[in-house]
Amino acid sequence: MDIMSKLNFKTIEWKDDFVRLIDQTKLPGELTFYDCHELADFIDAFKRLVVRGAPAIGVTAAYAMAVASIKGWDMTKTAGELIDARPTAVNLSWAVKRMMALVESGKGDTISLMAEAKVIHDEDARMCESMGEIGDKLIKPGMRILTHCNAGALATGGIGTALAVIYVSHFNDKGISVWVDETRPLLQGARLTAWELQRAGVPCKLITDNMAASLMASRQVDCVITGADRIAANYDVANKIGTYSLAVNCNYHGIPFYVAAPGSTFDYECPDGRSIEIEMRVGEEITTIAGNRIAPEGIDTYSPAFDITPHELVTAIFTEKEMIKP
Ligand code: MRU
After folding, report:
1. What is the Cα–Cα distance from 222 to 232, expressed in whole angstroms?
2. Helix (H), strand (E) at residue 206
3. Predicted confidence (pLDDT) per residue in 88-118, tens digit
4. Phi and psi for 180 in degrees, rounded to 5?
5. 140 CB-near residues (< 8 Å, 6+ apart)
6. Phi then psi for 262, rounded to 5 degrees?
7. Which of 22, 51, 146, 149 to mutate to test ligand 1, by most ligand atoms within 8 A of the CB atom?
8. How confident is the model over 163-192, as a mean pLDDT?
9. Is-cis flag, bond preceding 87, omega within 30?
10. Of 306, 324, 311, residue with least CA distance to 236
11. Which residue ranges have their beta carbon within 6 Å of ligand 1?
12. Catalytic option among 181, 229, 267, 307
């Protein structure tokens, strides 16, 4: 089943000596591209969420290390700056460290680094498909699935993590449908997941984040599937802010809460969720929507980008290899 060709877009594209990204800040209005030639372009793309989603950030960072080698940048300094751009998604440091290991082994010539970045990209695409197949085993015909943020093709080097499960089930003709959480403050659900699912022809309905609990109470949600930015050794899950409240609501209503994530999202050096650094974002992302001010000037804000869902609330984690029941 070639789901990627049905979606018909490339989130990340290697262009011999630079990287072309879909500019996700412009979706769904425009499908335009952002080319990364310089280190500052990559850092800007990460910080402004031109490219976002843990696996997609990892793949892009691997290509950034290949560009660094082509252009003769200081590899250690580049690695450090890339890793610092977004602290929560562990795939970023995972990919950069894998590229640095090649450099430090003495086998990190430019050709080998370009090849390694491509391998990381291809592996990610394959992992997405396996996650989709593994997760699909738990999806029953007609299920109404709720998802949060965007864990789709726009967030990975392949067909997604949570959305991979949804795509596989949909194209296996299970007649599923999807509730798309808008995902305040940056609206990755409304802007990106709704765009992707519509493009793939998956039946979906957009809701605001605060509608999920009442939908669950009226038995209109059969399961929730999200992605993850980092999973600790005890299987606590860091993911987009709002994920924890979905898991709590699932627990209260007896609804399964699933997470789909590749091996590159697991961080066994973090014993539990408390040791995961949570990225803080600027208040402007809360006080404005698409550049329009919605709160009074000078109001104080609090804007963590992610939250931690304790493992007790996670029914199963789908990886590319197995289904883990925390
Ligand atoms: O801030 P973002 O848009 O990078 O956050 C993305 C998420 O939280 C995703 O759910 C996660 O990275 C998994 S993507 C397959």
Report:
1. 26
2. strand 204-207
3. 999 999 999 999 999 999 999 999 999 999 9
4. -105, 115
5. 174, 222
6. -80, 170
7. 149
8. 98
9. no
10. 311
11. 49, 52-55, 89, 149, 151, 155-156, 160-161, 188, 226-229, 239-240, 305
12. 229
Beta bridge partners of 146: 179, 224
Q: Which amino acid is at 38?
A: E
Atom of ligand 1 nearest to the CA of 240: 8
Residue 229 known to be catalytic: yes
Residue nearest to atom 6 of ligand 1 (CA): 53
* 3-class secondary-structure state, position 61: helix
pLDDT in tens, 33-49: 999 999 999 999 999 99
* Helix (H), strand (E), coil (C) string for 42-56: HHHHHHCCCCCCHHH
Nearest atom, ligand 1, residue 305 CA: 1
1 pLDDT exceeds 80? Answer: no
pLDDT at 2 over 90: no
Q: Which runs of consecutive H residues, i.e. helices, occur in 137-232?
A: 162-171, 188, 194-200, 212-217
Phi/psi of residue 317, each to 5°?
-115, 125
How are beta strands 237-240 and 257-260 bridged, if at all?
unpaired
Strands of 323-324's sheet in order across: 204-207, 177-181, 144-147, 223-226, 257-260, 316-318, 323-324
